[in-house]
């Protein structure tokens, strides 16, 4: 059963992951996002909840 022979496929899988991790991923992470959410300068104050049955 040739499907159980990991010799060529293991090498191909490892080379694919190394290519992704060392070449493609740093190029993708270098892009900056254009939709940066605004930072809130004021904190929201919350009031305690008043339960009608207490």
UniProtKB/TrEMBL annotation:
One of its GO terms (biological process) is proton motive force-driven ATP synthesis. The chain crosses the membrane at residues 6-24. Keywords: ATP synthesis, CF(0), Hydrogen ion transport, Ion transport, Membrane, Mitochondrion, Transmembrane, Transmembrane helix, Transport. This is ATP synthase complex subunit 8. It comes from the Eukaryota. One of its GO terms (cellular component) is mitochondrial membrane. Its main location: mitochondrion. It holds the Pfam family ATP-synt_8. GO terms for molecular function: proton transmembrane transporter activity. PANTHER family: ATP SYNTHASE PROTEIN 8. It is found in: Mitochondrion membrane. Belongs to the ATPase protein 8 family. The keyword RNA-binding does not apply. It is a single-pass membrane protein.
């Amino acid at each position: 059963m040739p499907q159980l022979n990991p010799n060529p496929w293991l090498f191909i899988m490892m080379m694919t992951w190394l290519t992704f991790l060392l070449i493609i991923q740093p190029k993708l992470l270098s892009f900056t996002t254009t939709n940066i959410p605004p930072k809130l300068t004021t904190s929201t104050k919350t009031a305690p909840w008043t339960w009608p049955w207490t």
